[in-house]
Design a protein that fits this description.
- By secondary structure, this protein is mainly beta.
- It folds into 4 domains: 92 residues, no CATH class; 129 residues, Sandwich (Immunoglobulin-like), CATH 2.60.40; 119 residues, Sandwich (Immunoglobulin-like), CATH 2.60.40; 258 residues, no CATH class.
- 7% of the residues lie in helices and 28% in strands.
- It has 8 helices and 34 strands.
- The strands form 14 sheets. It has a 4-stranded mixed beta sheet, with no helix packed on it. The protein has a 3-stranded antiparallel beta sheet with strand order 5-8-9, with no helix packed on it. A 3-stranded antiparallel beta sheet has the order 12-16-15, with no helix packed on it.
């Protein structure tokens, strides 16, 4: 072998014998081209090929003693076999510290030493069992703790005695948050101590995990070891679902068809899961999910009050609520100012919601102890959900003998103000040819609990038709000659001048919505308001197949006018709530017949006088309505 001193030789290749294209070492390979004298070459050890100008070994000489065989190289002093040469390199110190991965940190050499020597010191801490929620109360002796008890443990998961511990905390931005937390020491005796973490401040779940994720550095000092061992744990604040405080489902009976601009019609209250009152409205977002009547959600908005955080519902239009429906709302927490909710695969770390429904009943007004719809009707279906078709074409309208509706002048902008116009067939629930011929097949036009102002089955006289209508002023001293003024909206926003006698003292707020004629044209907008009487067909309506009972108000008079209109006319409709004993009397031959609506709105009938009849004195009326000697209704 050649024994060099310090040489600048270069390892030009490092690989296995296969990588370096060396023949396999065998005991019978003596041709010199294989290195059978490499020890266990078949194990494919790593071999370095050195480039050097230094002579090593001896020169190999061809042995030609056997001319019949290939040349061989005898193991002679002057022959060279490719023996292994050994190079030694001076070791260097690496700047790279190598660690093993446990709940703590340390050098692998330390770990190896501990394994060899049976080290039983602390290598980690027990499970902390976090319960770090935004609902935690720093003033509570129980809920202030955000961890369970924990302690240092050895390699064998045995509790390790400790002397004391301290805590430092940083959020994910690296900001020191130590003051918001504390570490409690629980002395178990025998040198064993347990620890648990508590909060000093209130927290709220927000859409910024850097501010709700914390690194807890727990420094524990052990007996005979003055230098503390630091154990690090990471915990994230957990979300607690928000809660709507209103009684759900909620209900709202609108006292008027609209509220003044900027005034909410209903207010929802809710809180997120934070413990602190000051934080309970942070990053909450209100949303309208939809309404039971398709499309009506576009008529509303819900706005978060910047001071209280309440969800305030506003009407976006002068929309008259003319049927009971449901508005569904939702509150979501952890939503940024840009409207972005917090997302995470785990529910406790993402935005959560609560929902509530608000049932809004028909817009009503109380007049003389009775309930009326506060605006003209705008329904598009019968009570069972069957659609009432909208008809705009005048020729089609003129030919109808089934129910239909339209806007005045076919302009949808008139709907929120004046309501829809309906032909008589719609009010009667006539939706096809069969129901036209057979009243028992007809639909209910009004929503449950309401009906269209009832008309007499009598001869069409003013007295008979206005029996129920006179209830609008029965608690006043007005008569038909001036009662119209108590019903009409004041001023000239909608009525033409002079709008005679208008006081709207009843809050009925009658508007001059005009009418659609039997031929399909429109007239009298801003001058007159026309309304249908409802109930079953009266005697004269049956005998007159083209006309029916209605009433109107006009801009030049304070009176109420009882009229007849073509059944094909398009007029407005008002509902009144069902109530007991709506009596409508009329004379029928030798007997006085009285029809009335019971508490459920069903038509009933009494016979006054005659055999089996009731005396008139058994019935009472409210002034100025009275029953005269012939059973007819007299309006003073």
């Amino acid at each position: 072998q050649y024994y060099p001193s310090s040489k600048a030789d270069v390892a030009i290749a490092i690989g296995t014998s296969d990588d370096l294209s060396m023949y396999s070492a065998t005991v019978d390979n003596t041709l010199g081209s294989a290195v059978y004298n490499f020890y266990q070459l078949e194990t494919q050890p790593l071999i370095a090929r050195i480039s050097t100008s230094n002579a090593m070994g001896v020169t190999a000489i061809e042995n030609v003693s056997l001319s019949t065989l290939p040349p061989t190289y005898a193991s002679a002093d002057n022959n060279m076999q490719p023996y292994l040469s050994v190079y030694e390199t001076k070791p260097v110190y690496s700047l790279l510290d190598i660690f093993w991965e446990t709940s703590t940190a340390g050098l692998i050499s330390d770990l190896n030493a501990d394994v060899l020597t049976g080290f039983d010191g602390a290598v980690g801490i027990s499970d902390i069992n976090w319960n770090f929620k935004e609902s935690s109360n720093p003033l509570s002796s129980t809920t202030k703790y955000i961890s369970g008890e924990f302690w240092p443990i050895s390699l064998t998961n045995t509790e390790v005695p400790s002397t004391s511990a301290t805590l430092t905390v940083q959020d994910a931005n690296g900001t020191d948050s130590t003051a918001s937390f504390g570490l409690e020491t629980i002395d178990e005796g025998g040198g064993i101590k347990h620890y648990r973490i508590y909060i000093n401040d209130n927290f709220v779940f927000i859409n910024n995990t850097n501010l709700t994720t914390f690194t807890f550095s727990i420094s524990i000092i052990f007996p005979d070891t003055p230098v503390p061992t630091v154990f690090e744990e990471i915990a994230q604040l957990e979300n607690v679902a928000p809660t709507i405080l209103n009684s759900c489902p909620a209900t709202l009976a609108l006292p008027a068809p609209t509220s003044p601009p900027g005034v909410p019609i209903y207010t929802f209250q809710a809180v997120n899961g934070a413990n602190s009152t000051a934080l309970k409205q942070v990053e909450t977002q209100w949303t309208i999910l939809g309404t039971s009547t398709t499309g009506w959600e576009s008529l509303f908005s819900i706005v978060k009050n910047p001071t209280t955080g309440d969800g305030e519902i506003f009407l976006l239009d002068t929309f008259p609520i003319t049927e009971t429906f449901t508005l569904n709302v939702q509150i979501k927490d952890g939503v940024s100012s840009a409207g972005i909710p917090t997302d995470n695969t785990e529910l406790k770390y993402r935005s959560q919601t609560d929902t509530c429904s608000l049932t809004i009943s028909i817009g009503t007004v109380e007049i003389c102890g009775r309930t009326w719809s506060a605006r003209n009707v705008e329904i598009t279906t019968y009570a069972d959900g069957t659609a009432i078709p909208q008809v705009t074409d005048p020729a089609v309208w003129a030919g109808l003998t089934t129910g239909a509706w339209c806007y005045y002048d076919n302009d949808a902008a008139n709907g929120p103000i004046y309501g829809k116009l309906y032909n008589w067939y719609a009010v009667q629930g006539i939706y096809d040819a069969a129901s036209l011929a057979n009243p028992s097949l007809r639909k209910q036009f009004a929503p449950t609990g309401f009906h269209v102002i009832y008309a007499s089955n009598g001869s069409g006289s003013l007295e008979g038709h206005q029996t129920e209508l006179c209830a609008l002023w029965s608690c006043t001293s007005n008569t038909t000659s001036n009662a119209g003024g108590t019903l009409k909206e004041q001023g000239f926003d909608h009525w033409d001048n002079p709008n005679t006698g208008a006081t709207n003292s009843t809050s009925f707020t009658a508007l001059p919505g005009g009418k659609r004629t039997a031929s399909g044209t429109f007239e009298k907008l801003t001058e007159e308001g026309h309304w249908w009487f409802g109930g079953p067909e009266s005697g004269f309506e049956i005998s007159d197949p083209t006309n029916a009972s209605s009433w109107k108000l006009i801009y030049t008079s304070a009176a109420v006018f009882d009229i007849t209109s073509s059944k094909k006319d398009g007029l407005a409709v008002r509902f009144t709530e069902n109530y007991a004993a709506d009596y409508i009397s009329y004379t029928d031959g030798p007997y006085c017949q009285t029809t009335y609506l019971d508490e459920e709105g069903n038509l009933e009938q009494f016979t006054l006088g005659g055999v089996g009849g009731f005396e008139q004195s058994n019935f009472s009326t409210s002034a100025p309505c009275a029953i005269d000697s012939t059973c007819g209704i007299v309006i003073d």
